[in-house]
Specification:
The complex is a heterodimer of chains A (about 350) and B (about 260). Chain A is built from 15 helices and three strands. In chain A, helix 2 packs antiparallel against helix 11, helix 10 runs antiparallel to helix 15 and helix 14 runs antiparallel to helix 15. The longest helix of chain A has 30 residues. Chain B is mainly alpha-helical and about 260 residues long. Chain B has two domains: about 45 residues, no CATH class; about 200 residues, Cytochrome Bc1 Complex, Chain C (Up-down Bundle). In chain B, strands 2-3 form a two-stranded antiparallel sheet. Strand 1 of chain A pairs antiparallel with strand 1 of chain B. The complex binds protoporphyrin IX containing FE (HEM).
Chain lengths: ~350, ~260
């Protein structure tokens, strides 16, 4: 059983599985939003988590003090996703029946005094927060390791957990993409959201139907490309950033066949049976063209197929910027699958310029 | 008459009370307005607001909790500064001393777990704001301010990670700051940097690229410790405090907590 779980939690399967369940959930959003679903899911999660915690290896990773916040994060992420969907679907149903969303009922539009309605809630939150932090601090000592030693690197050397999504991306992309370009684009993309999303509906209340595309793509990035990668980076990556199942002992000598090859090698050596050309651009032409196609013809194709309507309502600048962001976001899962299925290392490999894609 | 007055009402007639609060206890409409309008902290709030906006089920109080944790971190951080010296010689030992010599010391724990918690609450706050569509007009700008706050929150946490000066600290920061080396054009190992040359002289070397500027050296050493200390204790918190002020101001100016139009 544990061997099976170890095996299945390899990102090839776990990531694919979670993508499948994500879209299944989006398709049957009413089911996901129901209290019954939540109760069953909660019980299952508790049982599975409880059972997994019986394993000393798993437990030792989970209760490592700096990993405990991730458990809180996970609990909050799962709860908040469900709760927002739950409220959204209720509002969807109300509006389908011609009623206003819950937030817009005459009763809820009424004005109330900040004192005591708001101030007391805040006071309560402050007290609860204080108690929580103090309890946490008494129960768990803050870790302190050996004094800093610049000549001896621990293995694995991990960034703080909130950056582990980025560190996990380093498996698939070079640092200039995973560590610099993608983070910058994430920030730029987030700031751009209100300027790209011109849909006037769904402002100031929970909803799903009114903002299907916006919510689905945000949840995809947030849950699958950010939170899930953090989980993998924290719990399933051991020495040398090698994959370890949740019950697998972090044995630093685990050997993993490193047989990743570049697109240029696949094309010239494997496919054409030739040596690699000396000229860099000749050598890498296929990869360069593919990347160019990805950002030119693919948008054109998408627009032909389903984008025309949005192109007109959103305007050119917004539309193409959105396509650019979505394509860039999707390049991550794309590269992940290319790695898993054809052991692809780089699409473009130009170490001469430090430009590897 | 006087016998029916409650204790609070009696106290509220004393000169001391009047000098501090200037109005009676907030048990009628007039005083409820006065207490919120007249108190520098409470006047962040509107006097009256839509019922939907005060419901815990709507905001989850995540922005408020983020702010609370920020304040708690400021207080515990200042207390830690009394004990901590940011030099390679003292830093680690000062952290040990905090653990061993300070009675009932949980300041370090409060500060560390609080920092983790703030990253979590700020993420969930953003998630809530997205799910209620509260970034839509007229709140586009405040969403942008929020994103900057999100980045700064993570940078605050990141710069603080180095300060204990243990193995975890320097290697986590080494991993993180190595990314800066790969910045296109500006990092010594990034794409394009190799082109920036005058004759044989490389303009972007490991002695002047962004990573060097960040660390004040070519590796995570004492200069980096001092830089991170100042960024962590002074620079970023000040910027965050200013931006939080802007953020709150804009929440009010954009019409208070969002509600259906
Ligand atoms: C240090 C970080 C932050 C603090 C202290 C903070 C604090 C707050 C507070 C107290 C509110 C009032 C409502 C609530 O509690 O939800 C609020 C609202 C808001 N926040 Fe933040 N916030 C922070 C970061 C962010 C981030 C990361 C975003 C988004 C990217 C954001 C966007 C907004 C928006 C758009 C509103 C208005 C919401 C509405 O009207 O419903 N804030 N913030």
């Amino acid at each position: 059983m544990k061997a099976i779980i170890n095996y299945l939690s390899d990102p090839v399967f776990s990531f694919t599985g979670i993508i499948f369940f994500f879209f299944l959930g989006i398709k049957h959003i009413e089911v996901v939003a129901s209290k019954k679903f939540a109760t069953i899911a909660l019980i299952l999660i508790l049982i599975i988590f409880g059972w997994m915690s019986l394993d000393p290896v798993f437990l030792s990773i989970v209760i490592w003090p700096d990993n405990v916040p991730i458990i809180f994060l996970l609990a909050l992420v799962i709860w908040s996703t469900w709760f927002a969907i739950h409220k959204g679907v209720i509002n969807d149903q109300r509006m389908a029946a011609g009623e206003p969303p819950v937030e817009g009922t005459p009763e809820n539009r009424e004005k109330v005094w900040a004192w005591p309605n708001l101030v007391y809630t805040e006071l309560f939150a402050i007290i609860a927060g204080t108690v929580f932090l103090i309890a946490w601090s008494i129960l768990l000592k803050s870790p302190l390791e050996e004094p800093a030693n610049p000549t001896w690197a621990p293995n694995p050397a991990k960034a703080p957990w909130y950056f582990l999504g980025l560190q996990e991306m380093l498996v698939y992309f070079d640092p200039w993409i995973a560590g610099v370009t993608l983070p910058v684009l994430i920030v730029v993309g987030l700031i751009a959201i209100p300027y790209i999303d011109t849909n006037p509906k769904g402002n100031g209340y929970y909803s799903f139907k009114d903002r299907k595309f916006a919510i689905t793509s945000f949840l995809f990035g947030w849950l699958l490309l950010w939170i899930f990668l953090i989980i993998i980076g924290t719990f399933l990556r051991g020495p040398n950033w090698t994959f370890y199942g949740p019950f697998e002992f972090w044995d630093a000598h685990k050997v993993v066949a490193a047989n990743n090859i570049n697109l240029s090698e696949i094309f010239w050596i494997k496919f054409l049976n030739m040596p690699l050309p000396k000229n860099i651009f000749a050598r890498e032409f296929l990869g360069l063209i593919l990347v160019a196609i990805y950002y030119t013809f693919v948008p054109v194709f998408i627009t032909r197929k389903f984008g025309q309507k949005f192109l007109i309502t959103m305007g050119k600048a917004r539309y193409y910027f959105l396509i650019f962001l979505v394509l860039t976001m999707m390049s991550l899962p794309l590269k992940m699958y290319l790695r898993w299925f054809i052991n692809l290392k780089y699409i473009v490999f130009m170490p001469e310029f430090e430009l590897n894609i | 008459m006087a016998d029916n007055e409650s204790f609070v009402e009696k106290v509220s007639k004393t000169q001391v009370w009047k000098s501090i609060f200037r109005h009676g206890p907030p048990n009628n409409a007039r005083n409820r307005a006065a207490v919120v309008a007249g108190n520098v902290f409470l006047h962040l709030h509107p006097i009256k607001l839509k019922k939907s906006g005060v419901q815990l089920g709507y905001t989850w109080c995540m922005g408020g909790l983020t702010f609370f944790i920020f304040l708690a971190l400021t207080v515990t951080g200042i207390l830690l500064m009394f004990y901590y010296r940011p030099t390679a010689e003292y830093a680690y030992n000062d952290i040990i001393a905090l653990r061993e010599h300070v009675p009932l010391g949980i300041m370090r724990e409060l500060h560390r777990w609080g920092a983790h918690a703030m990253v979590i609450t700020v993420w969930i706050h953003m998630f809530r704001v997205f799910m209620t569509g509260s970034y839509k007009p007229p709140r586009e700008f405040n969403w942008g301010v929020g994103v900057i706050l999100l980045v700064l929150t993570m940078l605050l946490s990141f710069t603080g990670y180095l300060l204990p000066w243990d193995q975890l600290a320097i290697w986590a920061i080494t991993v993180g700051s190595n990314m800066a080396k790969a910045t296109p054009f500006l990092g010594n190992g990034g794409p394009g940097a190799a082109f920036a040359k005058i004759g044989d002289f490389a303009l972007v070397s490991d002695k002047n690229d962004v990573r060097f500027q960040l660390l004040g050296g070519r590796f995570v050493g004492e200069a980096a410790l001092l830089r991170f200390y100042i960024l962590h204790c002074v620079f970023i918190p000040v910027v965050v405090a200013v931006l939080i002020a802007v953020h709150f101001w804009r929440v009010r100016k954009d019409g208070g907590i969002s509600a259906p139009l």
